[in-house]
Amino acid sequence: MLLSELQREHDCVEYGNLRDSQGRYDEALAAYDSALRIDPDDADALFDKGETLEKMGNLLEAKKFYDRAMALYNGY
Predict the structure, then answer these.
(1) Is there a domain that residue 2 lies in?
(2) Is residue 1 a part of any domain in this protein?
(3) How deeply is 5 buried, as exposed, middle or buried, from its count of CB atoms within 10 A (0-12, 13-18, 19+)?
(4) How far are the Cα atoms of 14, 15, 24, 29, 76 from residue 18, in angstroms, in the given order?
């Protein structure tokens, strides 16, 4: 399945998680961005994007996504 075929944010997040686990970080980030275009408040997509950014060494940017995700998680 191609990222362009996915229409639900959950499917995009799962695709991103698969690519992240394969070390294909740019593809993972693209998938998380697709999920966030569908639902900008998807806490899972935000958190997972933070994890991928951290793996890539982008710690400051990762923290922004972690903080936003945690604010949403705590809002439940």
Answers:
(1) no
(2) no
(3) exposed
(4) 6, 5, 9, 11, 27
Q: Considering the domain boundaries, does residue 52 fall inside one? A: yes
Please give the C-alpha separations between residue 60 and each of 5, 16, 75, in angstroms, as whole numbers.
Answer: 31, 20, 23
Q: What is the CATH number of the domain that holds 53?
A: 1.25.40.10
Asked if the structure places residue 67 within a domain, the reply is yes
Residue 42 confidence (pLDDT): 94
pLDDT digits (tens, 9 = 90+) for 3-62: 555 568 788 999 999 999 999 999 999 999 999 999 999 999 999 999 999 999 999 999
